[in-house]
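The records we work with from here on pair a chain with its fold. Taken together, the tokens spell out the fold as the letters spell out the chain. To see the layout at work, look at the sequence and tokens printed below.
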Amino acid sequence: MNTMPTKSRHTGQCPSSSPLPSRGWTLIELMVAVLLTTLLLSIALPSYQAHLHKARRTEAHHALSRVLLAQERHRSQHLGYAESLSSLGLSALPLEHYALRLHTDADPDTASARAGYRIEALALTQGQQAKDQTCQTLAIEVRAGQPQHSSRDALGQLSQGCWPQ
């Protein structure tokens, strides 16, 4: 039996051999691939980071909502708002990206007649959320029982779009 490959009638070559020798990538092809990858990353990365910042803001929204509910529960039992997070039982909220700060309207004449408060979630300066320049501080301010949401950017100016609609 003959084990030699037979030649094709049309080309005169063995059917298993390729018409062109195999070769690698040229330097120009590699540079074009690197350029396209860099271009795609420069377009996609800022958008991706903006989505991460927005997703991390939900941590602050949730914490602020918990404090709001705890304050209303405290007011219904003590006829005034609490002056600290620890008196609400919320001093150890597990927040990764924000720190909470509570400001009350304590009347020096009557300590129990606190008319309102402001709770703020401040982006931690050592975390990833510190790069969220548009929503550095998220706050809820309660006056006469009415909550108002606000937010400030890295320069302390009021900013929009930090709270879900």
Notes: The chain has a mean pLDDT of 81. The CA atoms of residues 36 and 95 lie 39 Å apart.
